[in-house]
Amino acid sequence: MFEAILLTVITAATPLLIAAIGELVVERSGVLNLGVEGMMIMGAVVGFGVAHHTGSGFLAVIAAILAGMLMSALFGVFVVYLATNQVATGLALTILGLGVSGMIGESFIGIPGMRLPELYIPGLTELPFIGPVLFSHDGVVYAGFALVFLTSYVLFRTRMGLILRAVGDNHTSAHALGYSVLKIRFLAVLFGGACAGLAGGYMSLAYTPQWVENMIAGRGWIALALVVFASWLPWRVVAGAYLFGAVTVLTFHAQAIGVTIPSQFLSSLPYLATVVVLVIISSNRRLTLVNTPACLGKTFIPDR
User: Fold this and answer.
1) d(CA 304, CA 244)
2) Potential cystine with 84: which of 78, 180, 248, 294 (Cβ 3.0-4.6 Å)?
3) CATH of the domain at 61
4) How far apart are CA 38 and CA 118, in angstroms?
């Protein structure tokens, strides 16, 4: 029973982890993208569609990533190069993604999906408890941890990461030193879109291998909250993602064992937990400001 719960928690936390890591990089560059939900849902529908038509999980994952990047490129053009309002554009991106995905996915409703193949390591996967929990997942789960490690390393141990953080903290100074603020921010937005697309593809290819309209169900907003919860630090995103993943899974198990609490309330617990965490963090001003990019959400227009 405990093993099954852990496996489900890992599956539930993976899309949150990947989407949040992508958004963390975007925000570190000084851009606030509220369109994570829209990018995820587009990754989900495109990934499912490609898997259905080609039978290839690899191509489906690549297609989901590209769908997220295409959506983020649209956002980047408007926000980075045309200097539109970041909040309004992000919300419009989410609405666009929900609408387009519903149109594309209308013919996929009710069609059985294809689950991504799981890893099998002889001698390790068969180990009791440890084997199934650590060595029996699909590649996207391990890719999520690899993304956390690489993001942390690049942000805090490389010149590239230093420049990215400099752009997010003081874009005027970074521009004066000769760095292309617009280019750096656009590339960060593309990376965030790729992660959101991958997270969405995981939803329709592994978490629930089928297409259901609005299947992301607010996880894009939870990913945004996770970035604040983690104080813009990659390894804290892991803790937050698994915390929210556990809350989500425990609500399902509580309903399965017949807990006499209204199912609507149990289903709302992950989102209620998100609100509570944000309120607690916001009440501590020092914690809120310690790693917040100083130019987050601020438009940069280079000197002509």
Assistant:
1) 46
2) 78
3) 1.10.3470
4) 27
**CA–CA separation, 205 vs 50, rounded Å?**
10
User: Please, what is the end-to-end C-alpha distance for the chain in angstroms?
Assistant: 64
* 3-state DSSP assignment of residue 167: helix
Q: How many domains does the chain have?
A: 1
Helix, strand, coil tally for the chain in percent (to 5): 75, 0, 25
Q: Assess contact for 175 and 302: CB atoms under 8 A.
A: yes
Quick check: is 300 in a domain? no
Longest Cα–Cα distance in the chain: 65
Separation in Å, CA 166 to CA 20, 46, 70, 80, 178: 20, 35, 26, 16, 12
118 beta partners: 138
- In the chain, count of helices (H) and strands (E)? 13, 0
Q: Is residue 215 part of a domain?
A: yes
> Which of these, 263, 223, 242, 269, lies nearest to 7 by C-alpha position?
242
User: Per the domain annotation, does 302 fall within a domain?
Assistant: no
pLDDT at 168: 96
Mean pLDDT confidence for 175-189: 96
pLDDT at 254 exceeding the cut of 80 = no
Does a structural domain hold residue 298?
Answer: no
Mean predicted lDDT score pLDDT of the chain = 89
Domain residues for the domain of 104 are: 2-289
Q: What is the pLDDT of residues 131-146, one digit of tens each?
A: 888 888 899 999 999 9
Spatial distance between the Cα atoms of 200 and 195, rounded to a whole number of angstroms: 9
